[in-house]
Every structure is written in structure tokens, then in C-alpha cells.
């Protein structure tokens, strides 16, 4: 019972937040000056008579009030139907599914890489406060934390693809090749630079955060006591520091999923990587409202679950924080 | 010795930043329309003595365009950060009025934080039809939650302070307490908050513009310059991709330094 209630509370909160996201994003779409019928027709707009337009509007339910339309959309959503994407000419759920499969390779590996490397750098910098290594790591993290993600990607393309020619400049596979023909090695080769860039950006935050935690510990009574007993800085960092700093780092990694996703949109755009981020941009630029709404909800779910895991981890490991009491 | 310096450092940092910003704004006034001036005999010229940072595909000077882009970023960032701080302050104030309003505000914060910033920015820019105004509003509407949380926590703590409770007990109204006692305490927080928001605001403006949802492609914004540069990357025209981003990075770093100095001094 003690464990179930907070979980149920969290789930209820999640549902409420998602409902709010649906409401807000639907409201934003309704407020847009871009006419969905114009966007659907595209260049054929001129060939359609006002009567035909009215017919389309009626068929799509645009003649009803916004509240009724929202109700329809929500009911369809609950039954699993996200609508039809006119940019990809496919159901929205299929577009999101296919695209996410490609993005997850990028997101997942960049996420793991940034968490591991960021944490190690933070521990090293924090354990040797004020050393040359610490200065280098801190400066590096401070600068990358301020770098625009897409500019970093542009620099990476310029250096590694254009000048050195080590990696391909674009896409998830060679141009014109069918999906089945692309080998795993080629896929990884195309994935290498986007993953490295995305990870490089994520590292900074985790490094800075972990470093602060390590400094905190190194100045604490625990560390002073250990030093008095003859332990070296490395001993203390290894025995106490890792434990002290690892939880916040894991939590931060889960809580920064939204930022990671935002970064992946920009990086997919620069590398022309056909993932969910690129689909988002296409949906926005070409006014594919159902797809945009679907992606907003999907990413909100993704990020909320990440946040929920981050909150729960704190509660589980640190008993001073009461479950559900945030 | 080092302990007494934060204020001095903050003042120095403030002076340098102010000087650079004034220089940036003055340069716009002096440059006139040279960021848009095309020279067809000097297209895609590499950086050198004649063309300091090189020229783009239409022969426009990259240094003038980068400066113009930074000035645009500065104004958009300023307005967005100010607007965002105002939103944070008013919502934090509303949240302290009653428990129900507090729950409402925190639901709003949770909703905004659960959608990736960039997607929310795109949705809002889409809803407003794009353009400068849309970017400013979109950035302002998405960046207030973290500051609102800080201000709200501060307000809850202040409410328990003896002088506030005495003031309430003496029969002063909630609004009197709010703007007579509480707001003066919050002004420094707001100042630092706005300064911390600023670099985020200009980075997100550039990202949004880069993706095509922000400032119009006819304006020399940093995002537009870099989106243009994308087309010439494989041709080896590296200066188009390097310098505008470098300018933006330096501006962000400068303001981050300033805000960390100020935070230490206040």
C-alpha cells in the first residue's frame, strides 16, 4: 500500500499533465492563422471551388465549434487514432513509430555516452579541484554548455566530413540505397558524427553538475575525517565521491531527456538524418497539424516518463525525501 | 583579498559588457544597410584584407551581417527575457495568494516542462504565424518556469518572516504586503533571473530561426546566416558556417560570465 499510492498518484498526475499538453497544443493549432485546408491542398488550392472547400471543411468537421472538434479529436486519440499525416501520406502513429525507431538509435547512444563521459569527467574534475585537469574540464564544459547545438553540428560537418572526409555529410545511409541493402556498418558510419555531436552537448551539463557534487563532498566532514585517517584524494573520490555524485547524475540524465530531444531536432536537421526531429520540422513548416500534435503528445509522454523516473529515483535511494511529497 | 573582490569584478564585467553592447548598437547605426548590400564581383570571397570575414553567395559582407545578426539577437533576447521575467513574477505572486491557485500554477509549470522546449517553441511560433514578434512571445512564454519556481519558493519563505506576519496581523491587505514588503525583496532575484534567461533566450531564438520558424529569411539573423551556410558547406566555404556561430557563442559566454559575477556580488 505504501508503495502503490505514490505510484498511482504519479500516474494520475501524468495523465493530467498529458491532458493539459493536449489542450494547450490543440489550442495553439486552432489559433494558428494558417488554414489547414490550404495547407492540405497545397498548390492545387487554385483549382478548388468554394463549394468544394466547404465540403472538405464539413467532412473534416471544421464547421463545428472548437470545443466539439477538440472532443472529437480527444475521443479518437483515446481509441488510438492520431489522424492522417498529409506530408508523409501515412497515419500519424505509423510516421511517429518509424521515425522514432531511427531516432532512438541516435538518442539512446548519445544519451548513454553523455551520461558516462560526463560523469567520469565530473568526478575527475571534482576530485582534483584547482588542478590543471580540472581547469581544462571546467572550461570545456562551460563553453560547450553555451554553444548552439546546430552550430556545433555545422562545425563537425565542416571538420570531419568536408575537410577530413572521414564521415558522410548526410542522411542515415547512402543516397538512393534501399533500406534493406544498407549494412549495419554503413548505418553506424552514418550515425557516428550525429551521435558524437549530440553527446558532446549533453556531457557539459552532467559534468558541471557532478563536479559541484564532488566539491561538496570533498569539503564535507566525511572527507576531512577520511583525510585525517590518511586517505588520499583518490581514495576519498573512489569510496565516497562516486556514491555521493552518481545519483544526482543519473537523475539529471533522466530529467534532461527533453533537452536531448530538442538537440536531436537540430542535429537531425543539420545531418539530414531522417528521424523524428526532421519529421517535426517538416510537419511544422508544411502545416501538418495532426502530425505536429501527435509528436507534441508523444514527446511529452517521453519527457514526462523521464521526469517521473528522475523523481522516483530520488525517493527510492534517498530516504530523507518522502515518497510523493514533492 | 579575493573575498572583497566580487563587487569590483561584477562592476568591471558589467562595464565591459555594457561597452560591447553599446558598440554593437552603435555599429548598426553606422553600418546602415551595408549588411544587405550585394557585390556581384565579390561573391563567396574568402576572408582577407578586403573582406574581413569573407562574403556570402550574394557578395554581402559577412562581418557586417554577423554584427547585424548579433544586434537582432540582442534585442530579441532582451525583450523575451524581460517579458519572461514579468510572467514569472506575476505567476509566482498569483501562486502565493491561495493553495488552489498555487496548484494551478504548478500544473501549468509541469505542462510546459513536459514538452521539449524546442517543440513548444515551434508550436507557439506556428500558432502565431512566425516572424519577430512570434519568436519573442514564444521564447518568453517557454522560459519562465525555472525563475517562477525560485520566486515562488522565495515568496513562501518570506511569508513566514516575522515582519510580514506582523504586518498581516496589523490588518494590512494581501496586496499591500505583496507589493510593499515582498516585491522589493524579489527585485534582485528578478534581475539575476532575467540575466540568466537572456543567453537561453538568444540561443533558442537562433535555433528556432535556423529551423525556419523564427525571423524571416530576409533579415540577417544569426539563425538565417547559418541556415544559408548549410547550403555551401560541402563546397568548402567554411567561413559562412564558422563566424556567425562564433559571434553568437562569444555573446552567450559574455552574458553568462556577467550573470555569474553579478550573482556572486548580490
Q: In terms of topology, how is this protein built?
A:
The complex is a heterodimer of chains A (326) and B (266).
Chain A: H1 4-31, H2 36-41, H3 50-60, H4 66-78, E1 84-85, E2 90-91, H5 92-127, H6 132-145, H7 149-163, H8 184-218, H9 221-228, H10 233-255, H11 257-271, H12 276-285, H13 289-317
Antiparallel strand pairs in A: 1-2
Helix pairs in contact in A: 1-13, 5-6, 5-8, 5-10, 5-11, 5-13, 6-8, 7-8, 7-11, 8-10, 8-11, 10-13, 11-12, 12-13
Chain B: H1 6-31, H2 62-95, H3 99-114, H4 117-128, H5 132-143, H6 145-159, H7 162-169, H8 174-211, H9 222-230, H10 238-265
Largest sheet of chain B: none
Proportion of strand residues of chain B:
under 5%
Stretches of chain A where pLDDT is under 50 for at least 5 consecutive residues are none
Extended strand count of chain A:
2
Give the CATH topology of the largest domain in chain A.
MetI-like fold
Family (chain A): Belongs to the binding-protein-dependent transport system permease family. OppBC subfamily.
Protein name (chain A): ABC transporter permease
Main location (chain A): membrane
Keywords (chain A): Cell membrane, Membrane, Transmembrane, Transmembrane helix, Transport
Task: Give a short summary of the structure.
Chain B: This is ABC transporter permease. Chain A is mainly α and 326 residues long. Chain A has helices at 4-31, 36-41, 50-60, 66-78, 92-127, 132-145, 149-163, 184-218, 221-228, 233-255, 257-271, 276-285, 289-317; strands at residues 84-85, 90-91.
Explained architecture:
The complex is a heterodimer of chains A (326) and B (266). With 326 residues, chain A is an all-alpha fold. Chain A has helices at 4-31, 36-41, 50-60, 66-78, 92-127, 132-145, 149-163, 184-218, 221-228, 233-255, 257-271, 276-285, 289-317, and strands at 84-85, 90-91. Chain A has two domains: 4-90, no CATH class; 93-321, MetI-like fold. Chain A has a two-stranded antiparallel ribbon with strand order 1-2. In chain A, helix 5 packs parallel to helix 13 and helix 7 packs across helix 8 (184-218). The two termini of chain A are 19 Å apart. Chain B has 266 residues and is an all-alpha fold. Chain B has a single domain, classed as MetI-like fold (Orthogonal Bundle), CATH 1.10.3720.10. In chain B, 74% of the residues lie in helices and 0% in strands. Chain B is built from ten helices and no strands. In chain B, helix 2 packs antiparallel against helix 8, helix 2 runs parallel beside helix 10 and helix 9 (222-230) packs antiparallel against helix 10 (238-265). The model of chain B has no long low-confidence stretch (mean pLDDT 89). The interface between A and B is large, with 51 and 43 residues. Chain B: It is found in: Cell membrane. Chain B: Residues 70-259 form the ABC transmembrane type-1 domain. Chain B: Belongs to the binding-protein-dependent transport system permease family. Chain B: The chain crosses the membrane at residues 12-31, 72-95, 176-198, 236-255.
